[in-house]
C-alpha cells in the first residue's frame, strides 16, 4: 500500500486513491517514501484515534516532510508546551477538561453561546457579497470561520489576515512538501503565530485586563495561579484553537457548498428543510472530510489487524479512506445525504481526542449553508469547474469554488432528476 499525497491526481480526486487503498488486501503497511505506516479501514482508524495508551499525539504537528537543519533551528522557537491537540495523558486530560468546562460541546449549548455571533458574521459577509456579483465562494468559506474563531477567542478581527497567512504557512509546513527555501519562510511564520499568541496572553495576564472571549475565560480560570494553568499553557491553547479552529471548518464549508451546488435540488432544500440541512452536513463530513489524515506515534509495539507496528513508528491515520470503507458504507464514493450510518464518520476523530470544536463547526456549516441558499437561490457552480484541493497530506480545502447565477426562469428543483427530499 502506497500513498503519494503530493501528486496532482490526489489533489484533484483523493477519493479515487481512498478506493484503491480500501481495495488492497492489507489495510496497514509501511510506506518507504513517506517513512511511516499507513493505516486504513474504518475499524482500524477508529481504534488508533481512540487508543491513547498505545498511540501518542506527540507527533501530530511534526512536519511530514523532513526539515532542513536551518528550518528546524528556526522552528525550535515554537516552544509552546503540549496541550490539547499535541498532548498525551495526563496533560491532555487536564487541559481538555478545562476547555470542556468553558466551551459548548453540544448543538444546543453552541447555538445558545455562539449562534448570534455566527449569524452576525454570516450576515456581514453576505451583505458585502451582495455589493458585487459573487465569483468565488471559497472567499466566504475561509472568511466566516476565520472571523468567528477570532471572536470566540477574543482576538482583534483586524489581525485576521495576518493570522490567516501564518496559519496557512504552518499547515503547509506540517502537512505539505515545501522546498528547503520555502521551509524557512514557513518556519518563521509558524514561530510568528506562536509569538503573537504568547504576547497577547502575556500582556493581558500582566495587566489583569483579561478581555472577552475564550482567552479571557482561560485567564480568569487561571486566576493568577500556575497550578491551575500557566500563562504559556493559556497561550498554547489559544495557538491550538486558532491554528485548527478555522482552517478545517473552511475546508468543510467549501466541500459542503460544492456538493450542494452540484445539484439544484440540494441547494433549494438547504434554505428551508432543516432535516435535510443536517443530513447534508453529516454526509459532507463523511464523504469529504476536511482532515483526511492524521499523525500518531506508537508508544509500544502494536499489533493491529494482524500487522505489528514497532514502537516509535510514525503512523498516518487515513480518515478519508476510513470514511469510504465499503465494509461500512454502501457505494461510499456516492454523495448520499440519506444513507445510513453517516453519523459514524470519523471526520472529527474519535475517543479522548474527539474534536472539541465539533459543535461550533457544525453550527457554522448549518448557519452558512442555510443563509447562502436562502439569499442566493439562483446560485450554481460556474461552467467548467473542476475541483482542485490544496496540496496536503491531511487537509482537504478547495483552492477555489467559482459560481454564477442560473439563467432566469430555471426551476431550482430538477423534476425527474436527483433532487433530495
Automatic annotation (TrEMBL):
Which GO molecular function annotation, any one, does this entry have? oxidoreductase activity, acting on paired donors, with incorporation or reduction of molecular oxygen
Q: Does the keyword Nucleotide-binding apply?
A: no
Pfam families, per the entry: p450 (PF00067)
**Domain of life assignment:** Bacteria
Per UniProt, the keywords (alphabetical) are: Heme, Iron, Metal-binding, Monooxygenase, Oxidoreductase
* Membership in a protein family: Belongs to the cytochrome P450 family.
Q: What protein name is recorded for this chain?
A: Cytochrome P450
The beginning of the lineage is: Bacteria, Bacillati, Actinomycetota, Actinomycetes, Micromonosporales
Amino acid at each position: 500500500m502506497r500513498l503519494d499525497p503530493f501528486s496532482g491526481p490526489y489533489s484533484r480526486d483523493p477519493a479515487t486513491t481512498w478506493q484503491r487503498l480500501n481495495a488492497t488486501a492489507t489495510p496497514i503497511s509501511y510506506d518507504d517514501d513517506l517513512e511511516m505506516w499507513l493505516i486504513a479501514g474504518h475499524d482500524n482508524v477508529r481504534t488508533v484515534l481512540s487508543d491513547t495508551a498505545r498511540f501518542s499525539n506527540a507527533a501530530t504537528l511534526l512536519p511530514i516532510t523532513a526539515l532542513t537543519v536551518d528550518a528546524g533551528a528556526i522552528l525550535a522557537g515554537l516552544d509552546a508546551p503540549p496541550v490539547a491537540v499535541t498532548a498525551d495523558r495526563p496533560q491532555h486530560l487536564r487541559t481538555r477538561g478545562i476547555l470542556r468546562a468553558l466551551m459548548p460541546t453540544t448543538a444546543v449549548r453552541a447555538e445558545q453561546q455562539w449562534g448570534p455571533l455566527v449569524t452576525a458574521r454570516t450576515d456581514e459577509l453576505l451583505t458585502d457579497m451582495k455589493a458585487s456579483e459573487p465569483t468565488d465562494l471559497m472567499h466566504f468559506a475561509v472568511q466566516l470561520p476565520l472571523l468567528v474563531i477570532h471572536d470566540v477567542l477574543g482576538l482583534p478581527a483586524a489581525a485576521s489576515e495576518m493570522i490567516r497567512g501564518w496559519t496557512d504557512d504552518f499547515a503547509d509546513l506540517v502537512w505539505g512538501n515545501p522546498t528547503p527555501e520555502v521551509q524557512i519562510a514557513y518556519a518563521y511564520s509558524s514561530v510568528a503565530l506562536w509569538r503573537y499568541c504568547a504576547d497577547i496572553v502575556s500582556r493581558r495576564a500582566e495587566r489583569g485586563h483579561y478581555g472577552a472571549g475564550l482567552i479571557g475565560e482561560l485567564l480568569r480560570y487561571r486566576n493568577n495561579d500556575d497550578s491551575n494553568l500557566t500563562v504559556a499553557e493559556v497561550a498554547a491553547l489559544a495557538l491550538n484553537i486558532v491554528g485548527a479552529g478555522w482552517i478545517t471548518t473552511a475546508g468543510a464549508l467549501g466541500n459542503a457548498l460544492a456538493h450542494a451546488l452540484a445539484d439544484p435540488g440540494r441547494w433549494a432544500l438547504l434554505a428551508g428543510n432543516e432535516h435535510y440541512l443536517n443530513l447534508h452536513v453529516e454526509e459532507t463530513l463523511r464523504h469529504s472530510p476536511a482532515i483526511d489524515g492524521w499523525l500518531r506515534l506508537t508508544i509500544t509495539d502494536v499489533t493491529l489487524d494482524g500487522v505489528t507496528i514497532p514502537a516509535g513508528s510514525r503512523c498516518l491515520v487515513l480518515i478519508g479512506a476510513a470514511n469510504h470503507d465499503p465494509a461500512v458504507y454502501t457505494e461510499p464514493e456516492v454523495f448520499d445525504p440519506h444513507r445510513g450510518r453517516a453519523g459514524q464518520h470519523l471526520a472529527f476523530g474519535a475517543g479522548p481526542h474527539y474534536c472539541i470544536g465539533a459543535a461550533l463547526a457544525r453550527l457554522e456549516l448549518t448557519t452558512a449553508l442555510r443563509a447562502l441558499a436562502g439569499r442566493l437561490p439562483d446560485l450554481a457552480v460556474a461552467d467548467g469547474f473542476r475541483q482542485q484541493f490544496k496540496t496536503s497530506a491531511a487537509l482537504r480545502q478547495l483552492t477555489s469554488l467559482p459560481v454564477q447565477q442560473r439563467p432566469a426562469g430555471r426551476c431550482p428543483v430538477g423534476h425527474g432528476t436527483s433532487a433530495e427530499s
